[in-house]
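Request: Not sure, any thoughts?
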Amino acid sequence: MKHLVIAFSMLCAVSFAASSAKANLKKEYCSNQTYYTETGENDGGRYPHLHCDTNFLTYSSGSTHYNFVIGSTLQSGTAGSACFKAEEQDAPNLKAKIAEVCDDFGKACYGC
C-alpha cells in the first residue's frame, strides 16, 4: 500500500509539472507579450505575428489566422500550415518559434 501511495504521489507531481509547463503559452513562447513579431516586438499592427495568450497561440499572416494551439492541444496540421505561410512571408524567426512549440509538444509539424 505504501508503494502505491508513493507511486500515485509521484504521478500527480509529474502531471502537475507537465500541465504547468504548458499552462502559460504567452510567457513561454512570446516573452509574455500579447503579440510577437518576426523581430520579437509586441506589435499587433505588424504582420505576420504570433497572437499569444496564456492558453492559445495563433499565427496571423494578415487576413488569415492559424490557431495552432488551443488550451493544451497542438493542432499539428494547422501549425504546419502556419510554418508554410511563415516561409512564404519570409518570417524565419516565427517559423522557428512554431517549430519549437511543435517540438515541445512532442509532435512533428509538416512544414516546420
